[in-house]
Model the fold of this input.
Amino acid sequence: MTLQLEKYDFKPGDVIKGYVKLNLRKPQQGRKLLVAFRGTRVDTVMVRTTDSKGIPSSHMEKIKTIIYNFELPLDEENTYLTEMYPFEIKIPADLLATIDQKPPVHNLELFGHTLPLQMSNAPLSTVILWTVNGHLDVPLKIDVRAEQQIVVSSA
Done:
């Protein structure tokens, strides 16, 4: 699968134009073909732990949270081989103002109840990754996927 875009740098309100090209070796029966525009916030946090002997240690951990997900179906159940599917996805004009900016929350399971726990300290760094993803859902086999990272900036 190839995912080709007209450009890779966008602003809110722009339209992502491109195509998904399938180049499979043999015909595959697929449930659906879709393209998605996703935003993933990656927070780097310091995690402090104590081992069974009471010795404290710490390590860095990356927590990925999907903050925006728009999926566009390109085709339904079909036999796929070497087709090309053009697509257009409009980026919402208010995208950067509406995405989730809150710090990550871990859940604590206690006596069958889920309690949200705020991280003890703020993330050391936060990066938002924007991607366009192609996905062919093939039952009982490995799905066919492609991903392209893009830039969405306010200026």
